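Translate sequence into structure tokens.
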Amino acid sequence: MNTLDINQIKEYLPHRYPLLLVDRVLDWESGKSITALKNVTVNEEFFNGHFPHKPVMPGVLMIEALAQTAALLSFLTEGRKPDENTVVYFLGIDNARFKRPVEPGDQLKMKVEITRCKRGIWQYHAEASVDGQLAVEGDLMCTMRSAADASQKA
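Result follows.
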């Protein structure tokens, strides 16, 4: 089993609190798939406003957590860690569906599979569940660019 703890994850992702949304990688297989966790706590800053009377994790942040998990899989598949000149762009999402709310105390289990990689465009199918119940799913696209190329179209 290939695992990563939070310190190892931070070697691959430039995100930091409050936007680092992957806490642990449970398993990954190069070129295929990854399973990771996000522990959702009441202390998350977004719960202050979404919503004070009934805290729910915003769907856009669930998608971002899946995109971060996908980026991890891409770097692990390429066998490299990003440097300060590497930028990962989230290019798009198709077929996004939200199936259940995610609340404080939940553990979001994220599964991402590579469906295609061609000319630097990575495509994935991504799902996140809580206690075995699907919370969100979608098909993601990302690309990696050098910072020098960051202002050019992907």
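Note: The longest strand covers residues 133-146.
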